[in-house]
């Protein structure tokens, strides 16, 4: 019997909320499911160490579990406390498969926060030495011992199989144990509904991508030397006003990013072929997609079919932590550049590996993460950091883009730091058509770096 991917996902999510795959170091290499709900993490968790998502007191238990997993072995479930909310535990089961290159497959689900059980304070009388007795004491009759029958704790029909000696004491406040079962049922029902919603979103997204049922929003990227538009970044927007961030998270969770990357560049090339020849568009491509040779081959076929789009594409590399092979990534980046396109490393500074990627990938542009750009007017330290970054990029032959430029103060600081291009709400929010922001007189700039055409 053949199992299609959606059937496998359905079977997996019938008993879990989140599926992970780990390498031998405990690093997350694959994610599917509700990672944001279980771990409260706003950014993608691929590439992170699993123990970084857990409370410190759980690290040793996780480490021992992973070490004890032989090929084909299964351990769990164990209850672990997440770092963001230790009072919302998760249940984890893990299995190592030799057929899957020895990687560790993990299934996690939300564990209900059960009431705490306490036995109450234990009163211990202070020690007192025994009294001194005479040499010939009068024999004492043994005191009668009153034996009481043990009192069984309250039991419900669903707990009848538990041995009496492991029955827990009543919860704090005297609540009966019967409160536990409704809590478990409510949590299971909630998890089932969340699973159905996630699968429904994934199915809708897969259909929209395969049928190209999405539109573009365009945001201008401005050359700071003369305040002219250099290109527009395209942002996918789906029908029914779906939250773009939620759709991207769904694509990440259900392994749909490669299909989305292919669909976006296809629509972008068609837009270039049908629009004015001065229009240039930037599309995002994930590190994982870039490492697949089919992406560069797809782009080459598109440009052969629409020659007028050649030289007008910019590829912004995102989720660079998903690059599995740096040599392959550079090979296909050079293939895209050989087609007349520019390649940009997106959101530099958002990940710990950004500088390593710049050293090993030959690129054209680096986009400085908005967190640094927003602080340009906050003090000399922030401005000095950006200036040093720009200088380092210049020595590597890279031009720079400042993200999230939202006011003229940040724009002036970026221009003084030597940044080449800027993007943000100062120049316009994403719109349905490529628009040119209102022209302003360019301010004096620092000594010019070599500019892109």
Q: Which labels suit this protein?
A:
globular; five-stranded antiparallel sheet; Beta-Lactamase; alpha/beta; 453 residues
Briefly summarize what is shown.
The chain is of the alpha/beta class. The protein is built from 13 helices and 13 strands. The strands form two sheets. Strands 6-7-8-9-10-11-12-13 form an eight-stranded mixed barrel, surrounded by four helices.
**β-sheet strand percentage:** 15-25%
Average pLDDT, rounded to a whole number, is 78
Largest sheet descriptor: 8 strands, mixed, barrel
- How is the largest sheet built, in terms of strand order? 6-7-8-9-10-11-12-13
* Contiguous uncertain segments of 5+ residues: 114-127, 133-137, 145-175, 441-453
- The radius of gyration over CA amounts to 30 Å
Per CATH, the architecture of the largest domain is Alpha-Beta Barrel
Number of domains: 2
Subunit organisation of the chains: single chain
Helix and strand composition category? alpha/beta
Number of helices: 13
Distance between the termini: 57 Å
Q: Looking at the structure, what is the overall shape?
A: globular
Task: Fill in the CATH topology of the largest domain.
Answer: TIM Barrel
Q: Please estimate the helix content.
A: 25-40%
For the record, the CATH class of the largest domain is Alpha Beta
Write the H/E string, N to C: HEEHHEEEHEEHHEHHEHEHEHHEHE
- Could you name the CATH homologous superfamily of the largest domain? EAL domain
| Count of β-strands | 13
């Amino acid at each position: 019997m053949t199992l299609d991917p959606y059937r496998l996902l359905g079977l997996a999510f019938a008993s879990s909320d989140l599926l992970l795959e780990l390498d031998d170091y405990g690093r997350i290499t694959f994610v599917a499911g509700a990672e944001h709900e279980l771990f409260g993490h706003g950014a993608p968790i691929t590439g992170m160490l699993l123990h970084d998502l857990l409370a410190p007191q759980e690290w040793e238990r996780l480490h021992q579990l992973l070490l004890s997993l032989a090929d084909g072995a299964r351990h769990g479930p164990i209850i672990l406390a997440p770092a963001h909310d230790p009072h919302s535990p998760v249940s984890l089961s893990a299995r190592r498969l030799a057929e899957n290159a020895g990687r560790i497959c993990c299934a996690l689900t939300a564990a209900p926060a059960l009431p705490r059980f306490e036995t109450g304070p234990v009163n211990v009388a202070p020690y007192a030495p025994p009294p001194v007795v005479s040499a010939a004491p009068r024999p004492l009759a043994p005191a009668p011992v009153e034996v009481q029958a043990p009192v069984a704790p309250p039991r419900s029909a669903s707990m009848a199989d538990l041995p009496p000696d492991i029955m827990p004491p009543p919860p704090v406040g005297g609540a009966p144990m019967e409160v536990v079962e409704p809590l478990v049922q409510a949590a299971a029902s909630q998890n089932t509904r969340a699973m159905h919603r996630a699968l429904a979103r994934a199915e809708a997204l897969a259909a929209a991508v395969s049928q190209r049922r999405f539109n573009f929003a365009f945001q201008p990227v401005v050359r700071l030397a003369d305040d002219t538009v250099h290109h527009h970044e395209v942002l996918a927007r789906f029908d029914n006003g779906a939250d773009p961030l939620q759709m991207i998270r769904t694509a990440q969770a259900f392994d749909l990013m490669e299909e989305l990357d292919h669909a976006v560049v296809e629509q972008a090339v068609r837009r270039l072929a049908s629009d004015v020849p001065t229009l240039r568009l930037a599309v995002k491509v994930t590190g994982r997609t870039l490492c697949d040779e089919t992406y560069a081959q797809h782009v080459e076929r598109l440009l052969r079919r629409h020659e007028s789009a050649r030289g007008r594409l910019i590829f912004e590399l995102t989720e660079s932590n998903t690059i599995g092979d740096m040599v392959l990534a550079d090979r296909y980046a050079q293939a895209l550049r050989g087609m007349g396109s520019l390649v940009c490393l997106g959101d530099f500074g958002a990940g710990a590996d950004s500088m390593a990627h710049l050293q090993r990938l030959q690129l054209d542009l680096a986009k400085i993460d908005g967190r640094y750009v927003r602080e340009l007017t906050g003090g000399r330290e922030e401005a000095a950091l950006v200036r040093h970054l720009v200088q380092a990029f210049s020595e590597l032959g890279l031009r720079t883009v400042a993200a999230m430029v939202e006011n003229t103060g940040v724009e002036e600081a970026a221009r003084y730091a030597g940044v080449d291009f800027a993007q943000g709400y100062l120049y316009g929010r994403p719109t349905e058509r490529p628009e040119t922001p209102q022209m302003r007189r360019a301010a004096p700039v620092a000594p010019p770096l070599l500019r892109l055409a």
